[in-house]
Amino acid sequence: MIVEVDDRNELFHRIALSFVPGIGARRQKMLLDHFGTASGIFGAPLKALCQFDGITEVNSKGFRDKSILSRAEKETSFVEKNNVRVLYHGHPNRLANCTDAPQLLFFKGVADMDAKKVIAIVGTRKNTDYGQQACEDLVEALSGLDDVLVVSGLALGIDAIAHKKSVAMGIPTIGVLGHGLDRIYPFTHKTLALQMQEHGGLLTEFPSETEPDRNNFPMRNRIVAGMADITVVVESNISGGALITALMANGYNREVAAYPGRITDSRSAGCNEIIRTQVATMITKPDDVLELMQWGKTKKSRAVQSQLFLELSPEEQSVADLLSKVDAMHADELMLHSGISYSILASTLLQLEMSGLVKSLPGKIYRLT
To answer: Which CATH superfamily is domain 1-81 in?
Structure first.
């Protein structure tokens, strides 16, 4: 469920809060946690604000800056006039688990950003026919699932292919922007963006009149990664924005998958690298993604699992029992809850992997197969 800022006075002050120089998302959250509302922050004495870490007498003056309040009023009028939904921290739900999530988001569209299955599909702006085919096949396979959402960055290449195919297949799709909602970049995607607003939507943390500056796109990428259960990289060179998104997703302990490519193809160099370094799971077909995420497949019953566990060693049984209660667990948590030493746990997990009962995921995460 999307939660919006309904009260205009509070909406105005939340927007104004985002404009105060030197007060980033974390300090905004700190102040909101203390004062309860953005209007309460602006109504507080400057001396009280200066008591908080990182807020100085200089940047506290921003709370009294008339130009900031004027800009906030202009932005408030923009969102009201254009039916833009303003979301605050905690929504979408998956993004709330990211420590660097923005305090304010602007959304125009109809999609449920808290769908049961959210997948980010990203890649190079200069895709090959191989990349286009892989991307379209993946989206087509997703059309057979219920309550699925495709997220990408509305860029040229793989992003646009993922969005276009989603629209064609009737799958809700959201484009996360590196600029305000008063413009579309690249401009050639204007028609696509309109179609997406009818079936999905456009999302950004940037207010209107924000240009598509190159420094905005890494910030955009963290939202793409944070919104999704899994990020799939179709094609990417070794320093592409898609690779940044994949690394961010891995940092959030989300699934990452990538299609491999020829070792001589620069547009697959990034994919090959994150597969080699175990940041991403290698996939070669859409079913690999569905299997990895256990989407559209019935999980083994506990009765069947119990039968499999009967022939395990005490250490293997302990680990299997722990994993049977959750979707996945980090090695450190397994060690903590099982009481098994790290060296024995490592050999136990290896044996369970070799037996086909446990799957190792990037970031020392394990789960039952």
So the answer is: 5' to 3' exonuclease, C-terminal subdomain (1.10.150.20)
